[in-house]
Design brief:
The chain has 381 residues and is mainly β. The protein has a domain of 199 residues. It has two helices and 31 strands. Strands 1-2-4-7-10-13-16-19-22-25-28-31 form a twelve-stranded parallel β-sheet, with no helix packed on it. The protein has a ten-stranded parallel β-sheet with strand order 3-6-9-12-15-18-21-24-27-30. A nine-stranded parallel β-sheet has the order 5-8-11-14-17-20-23-26-29. Strand 1, helix 1 and strand 2 form a beta-alpha-beta unit. The longest helix has 9 residues.
Length: 381
């Protein structure tokens, strides 16, 4: 679909293996720029603007040619400082075609305190990133960091991206990144939280996988909207919601070291059609004086009972169609297989039948599943 563009839309190419930053016209693959930062600088200069597209082409070895500490991608980190631009920045195959190919940006040789990509000063808005793997390689602090200081709400979109191996958080925001949308993304094997969003977040977090992070899978402030996500094998809570007001639907919380889902704060939250299994502490811990409504959730084999509410606040947890002690079996959850067997009391009880994440032929909840590298593609392009 990305090949069908309007007459006024310009497509620019970046080819770390064969490109040249001195190229006067990067609108052909043969004239591609060499570095990603060159394309970003052209956005700052206003030469790439609303409706345009930047395609980062796959190379014979992305970890060499898009190594932020290497000769091709100098400077140590990518900086995003342009004014609002409705521009798509996406990975593409070696021919420059957007077909679901995920291009790796490599954070080698950074000092552990520098992010791979920094979105700063509250200037960047309305940009979309797609089909990119940010691999911090255990040397970059964050894969993506936002240090916004302005007072305006901020809109961004990440689609089919992966944030992995940061020494701290996979994605970190500290201020007004209110409307950051994460669609079909994976946050895994980071030294802190997969997605650390400390303030209000009214964007969508949809069809995302948070797994094997040392801290929480994700952490959000007021108003998080989380749908069709999996939180698996994280070193603290699967998901931590602070200040409540969240809506969480059709998610799996499995095998997390603390609670599957922890909710605190002063605004009402709604949890619907979720599966809480094999968490070390509680499946769902509502540790506040909030009225949290829970509809049609299932709990199985959590360490400290199925759910927890402070005794004085027990009346604030509303339970609907509550299913406890679910008699079900899974495949190997390390392979992200959450498909119920036919004996599960969840089946036929109004509970969605959950799924194997990578490539299952079983019925699922319409998740679409994150694209396994070398496996099936879920790209929307």
């Amino acid at each position: 679909m990305a090949e069908y563009t309007g007459a006024s839309v310009r497509i620019y190419y970046v080819d770390g293996e064969n490109g040249d930053d001195s190229s006067a016209d990067a609108t052909t693959t043969g004239g591609a720029w060499e570095t990603i930062q060159k394309a970003f600088d052209e956005m700052v200069a206003g030469n790439i603007t609303d409706g345009d597209e930047v395609r980062i082409m796959s190379t014979s070895d992305d970890e060499t040619y898009y190594d932020l500490g290497g000769a091709q991608q100098t400077g140590g980190k990518l900086t995003c400082t342009w004014a609002s631009r409705e521009v798509l920045i996406t990975g593409a195959n070696s021919s420059g075609v957007v077909d679901g190919t995920i291009v790796t940006i490599f954070g080698d040789s950074l000092d552990g305190t520098t992010p791979m990509m920094e979105i700063s000063v509250g200037t960047v808005d309305s940009t979309q990133f797609a089909n990119l793997k940010f691999d911090a390689n255990d040397t970059a602090q964050h894969c993506v960091e936002s240090t916004l200081t302005g007072t305006s709400s901020h809109h961004m979109m990440f689609v089919n991206c992966r944030f992995t191996q940061a020494t701290s958080h996979g994605v970190y925001t500290n201020n007004k990144a209110n409307y950051w949308n994460m669609i079909n993304c994976r946050f895994d094997n980071n030294g802190g939280t997969g997605y650390e969003h400390q303030h209000s977040n009214y964007g969508a977090i949809h069809r995302c996988l948070f797994d094997n992070n040392a801290g929480d899978g994700s952490r959000h402030g007021t108003g998080a909207k989380i749908t069709d996500c999996v939180f698996f094998n994280n070193g603290d809570d699967g998901c931590y919601i602070n200040n409540s007001g969240a809506v969480i639907c059709n998610c799996v919380f499995d095998n997390n070291t603390s609670d599957g889902l922890y909710i605190s704060g002063s605004g009402q939250s709604v949890v619907m059609n979720c599966l809480f299994t094999n968490n070390t502490a509680y499946g769902l811990n509502v540790d506040n004086s909030t009225e949290t409504k829970q509809y049609n959730c299932a709990f199985y084999n959590n360490g400290n009972d199925s759910y927890f509410v402070d005794e004085e606040d027990v009346n604030h947890l509303s339970m609907f169609n509550y299913l406890d002690d679910v008699t079900t079996t899974y495949g190997v959850t390390a392979d992200f297989d959450f498909t119920h067997n036919g004996d599960s009391s969840v089946v036929g009880a109004g509970m969605p039948t959950h799924y194997e994440w990578f490539g299952s032929t079983a019925s699922d909840i319409g998740l679409g599943k994150f694209r396994a590298e070398g496996g099936e593609s879920i790209s929307i392009f």
